[in-house]
Every structure is written in structure tokens, then in C-alpha cells.
């Protein structure tokens, strides 16, 4: 229907006569909507006490970048390092993996352009919309670790571009779109595509080295543990990974909860055009129901190991307090608005997807072993929230807005492992399970 003047006048008068809504209007226009709707009781119900509490290490800070998936992965290794070598604190260089991820994503983008030169317009538009970005998924992080190793943060420190990546991404994507046109023209003219691509990659490498710094191929490193023992290292980043991380990444699998009709449970999935390192293992997920999903996460924490997980962190999130809880804000009482979409509906209609990766560092279980609330290690620095950078997520929030965990294969049943290792269903490039944290 057309919005007539009379219809809009009726809406205007209905609002003007509603004294409750006028009171909320006064509060929201002065203090902001969410601050006006905040529920005090949600704080008391989510105090940071947990029956399983794996770490109190100082949190890290990704600053103005989208590297949460890297921070989350390296935080899981970092806790292991701190415990094994009895150090006060330690960080792996997130800038180092950032460099190689940008480099590899550029090559991945070129390969998609070259190998799918006759792709349909929607797929081409999808690739060109964001040739690369900061975000990623667990299997993409594995690809970087296996190929390039890791280094301490002191060996390859932060740069302006790694700490605030907007400018870097703007001009790298500008280059990549231009390069896509060059490659497609070269193919059309039956030119030497490989030679052209190599020249373009040199330009990309130079740009990354200038903005992020040239990463080390070998280095010396030394540190003292809590007992003042001096520990020295000399070698390559891959040798450093082998000595100080020594985690077999093939032991870990990505488990998702996507309760949509197109993704039956206990089957494996991958996503078209999703990856970073050409030749690395595919990004692959096992879809399970939420009850099983949480049991897997708890099993790994009961075994003493934190859990990488992906979620939609901005939903029902009280960032200033460090709370992720479904009762954070009261829209119904104040505004007569109720959000009724379920998890599947939010995925199908574009309301929610994975936007952020963090670490499950603890869980509070009731007397029957059921989760009540979860300890979340974030990467927004110690001043985010009320708990020195750690967040608390209610169990109901986890049900609604958590989409991915990474657990060791040993916690899967035989049937689940068989399903994971089976030929995956390939999802469309824009499927929400292809979202990058």
C-alpha cells in the first residue's frame, strides 16, 4: 500500500498518546537506546565464577583489526606455552601470521579469477566485492601455521597497519581488483598468465612488506621462566612452532551448529571459494545439534584445554559490562517489541552469522553437569567489560548465537568422525557458514 498522510498521522497520534513510549523516548534520546533498556538483573545472574576455570592469563588486544580468529587460535597455544614453560606472560606474533595470510589470500584470489574465468556474474561480483579481508576460519589458520610456523611477538611486533588495518585493506583490495582485470584481459588475449601473475604477486609482496614489515625467515630468541632459567632458541618459525607449540593440528576438527533445513545434522560441509592457502586442506565443518555441540566443548575443557569458538558477538551483547546474555535488554516491556526469530530463521534471513572468534576458557556446571554460563576470553584488551577483558556468556545466549567450535577428534564418536571425514556438501559462496570471524 501507499503510505498516505492520514495513515502516518494515525501512527503519529498513537505514539504521542502513549505515555510509556514518550517516557522511553526521553530516556533513549538522552542516554541511547541500549543504555536505557539495560536490565540490572542480568549482571547479578552472570557473575564470573565457574566450576571449570582454565586460565586467568592477561587478555590480548587485536586493536583496530579483524584478527580475532588469529588471536583466538594463538591464545589457545599461548596458555599451553605459559603453563609448560612457567612464564608470567607470553604472546605469539599475530602480525606475523597476518602478513602471510594477506599474501596467501591474494594468491588465492588470483587463482579463483584464473581458474573460474567463465564464472557467472553473481560469483564474480561476490569475489570482487571483498577480494580479501582480515577475517578467517579455523582451517585457514591451520594452513598458515603449517606452512609458516609462528614467532614470538617481540620478534615480529605490531605495525601501524596490523594494529589498524582499514588503510591496508583499502589499498590491497584496490590492487587486487585492478589485478583481476589484468588477469582476465591476459587470459582473453591468450597471454602468459603465470608470468603476469608472478609480477603481480611481487607487487603485492612489496606492498605488504612495506606496510607490515618484512617477516623473519630465521631468528634468535631467549626468555626466562618463573624459576629464572634461561631458555634459548635459534632457528626458523616452523622450528619454533615444533619446539614451543608442538600441536598436531590434524587432530582438531571444526564443529558447527546450523539448524537450517538445508544442512542436516551429522553431515560435513564446505563452502565454495572459501580458503586462503592454495593446496591446503579444505575448510570443513561437521554440523551437530546444540546439545551435542556444547557437550563437545565441555569435554575438551574438562580435559584441561580451552576451546576456539565463533559467534555473533554483537547480538544481545553488553560490551561495557562484558556480558553476553539474552536478558541484557528489555525491548518488550519498554517498547512493546519482541524479537521472535529462532536461530534457523536468523541464519536464513541474514539477521545473524559468525562475526567474531574467541576462546571458551571455562564453564559453570550445575549439579547434573549441565552448563549454566561460560567464561569467554576475548581479544579486545583488559579494559573491555568488567572482568579484565574476559566476558561471561549465559547458556541461553550460547544456544542462540554460537556457531562454531574446534575440538580434538578424540571427543567425537565413531559415527561423527566418519561423517566429518566423508565427502562434504559444497555450500554456496554466500552461505552464512562461510562467514569469516
From TrEMBL:
Gene Ontology cellular component list: cytoplasm
Transmembrane regions listed in the UniProt entry: none
InterPro entries, alphabetized: Papain-like_cys_pep_sf, Pept_cys_AS, Pept_his_AS, Peptidase_C1B
UniProt keyword terms in alphabetical order: Aminopeptidase, Hydrolase, Protease, Thiol protease
Pfam families: Peptidase_C1_2
Active-site annotation: 68, 356, 378
Domain of life: Bacteria
GO molecular function, one term: cysteine-type aminopeptidase activity
One Gene Ontology term from the biological process aspect of the record: homocysteine catabolic process
Family the entry assigns: Belongs to the peptidase C1 family.
Protein name (record): Aminopeptidase
Amino acid at each position: 500500500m501507499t503510505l498516505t498522510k492520514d495513515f502516518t498521522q494515525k501512527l503519529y497520534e498513537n505514539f504521542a498518546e502513549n505515555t510509556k513510549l514518550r517516557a522511553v523516548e526521553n530516556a533513549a534520546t538522552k542516554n541511547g537506546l541500549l543504555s536505557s533498556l539495560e536490565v540490572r538483573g542480568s549482571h547479578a545472574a552472570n557473575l564470573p565464577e565457574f566450576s571449570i576455570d582454565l586460565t586467568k592469563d592477561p587478555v590480548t588486544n587485536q586493536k583496530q583489526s579483524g584478527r580475532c580468529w588469529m588471536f583466538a587460535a594463538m591464545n589457545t597455544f599461548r596458555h599451553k606455552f605459559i603453563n609448560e614453560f612457567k612464564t608470567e606472560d607470553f604472546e605469539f606474533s599475530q602480525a606475523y601470521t597476518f602478513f602471510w595470510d594477506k599474501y596467501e589470500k591474494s594468491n588465492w584470489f588470483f587463482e579463483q579469477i584464473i581458474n573460474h574465468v567463465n564464472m557467472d556474474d553473481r560469483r564474480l561480483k561476490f569475489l570482487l566485492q571483498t577480494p580479501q579481508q582480515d577475517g578467517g576460519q579455523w582451517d585457514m589458520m591451520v594452513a598458515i601455521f603449517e606452512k609458516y610456523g609462528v614467532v614470538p611477538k617481540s620478534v615480529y611486533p605490531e605495525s601501524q597497519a596490523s594494529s589498524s588495518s582499514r588503510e591496508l585493506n583499502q589499498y590491497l583490495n584496490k590492487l587486487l581488483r585492478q589485478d583481476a582485470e589484468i588477469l582476465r584481459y591476459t587470459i582473453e588475449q591468450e597471454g602468459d598468465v603465470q608470468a603476469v601473475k608472478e609480477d603481480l604477486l611481487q607487487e603485492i609482496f612489496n606492498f605488504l612488506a612495506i606496510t607490515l614489515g618484512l617477516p623473519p625467515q630465521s631468528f634468535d630468541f631467549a626468555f626466562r621462566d618463573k624459576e629464572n632459567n634461561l631458555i634459548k632458541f635459534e632457528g626458523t618459525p616452523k622450528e619454533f612452532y615444533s619446539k614451543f607449540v608442538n600441536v598436531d593440528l590434524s587432530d582438531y576438527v571444526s564443529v558447527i551448529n546450523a539448524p537450517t533445513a538445508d544442512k542436516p545434522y551429522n553431515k560435513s560441509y564446505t563452502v565454495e571459494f572459501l580458503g586462503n592457502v592454495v593446496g591446503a586442506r579444505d575448510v570443513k565443518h561437521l554440523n551437530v545439534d546444540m546439545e551435542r555441540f556444547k557437550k563437545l566443548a565441555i569435554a575438551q575443557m574438562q580435559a584441561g584445554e580451552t576451546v576456539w569458538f565463533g559467534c555473533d558477538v554483537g547480538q544481545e551483547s553488553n560490551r561495557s559490562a562484558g556480558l553476553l546474555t539474552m536478558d541484557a535488554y528489555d525491548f518488550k516491556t519498554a517498547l512493546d517489541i519482541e524479537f521472535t526469530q529462532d536461530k534457523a530463521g536468523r541464519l536464513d534471513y541474514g539477521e545473524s552469522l559468525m562475526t567474531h572468534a574467541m576462546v571458551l576458557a571455562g564453564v559453570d556446571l550445575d549439579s547434573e553437569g549441565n552448563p549454566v554460563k561460560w567464561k569467554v576470553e576475548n581479544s579486545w584488551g583488559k579494559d573491555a567489560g568488567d572482568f579484565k577483558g574476559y566476558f561471561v556468556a549465559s547458556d541461553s545466549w550460547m544456544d542462540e548465537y554460537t556457531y562454531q567450535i574446534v575440538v580434538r577428534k578424540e571427543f567425537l564418536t565413531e559415527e561423527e568422525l566418519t561423517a566429518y571425514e566423508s565427502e562434504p556438501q559444497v555450500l554456496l559462496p554466500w552461505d552464512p557458514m562461510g562467514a569469516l570471524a
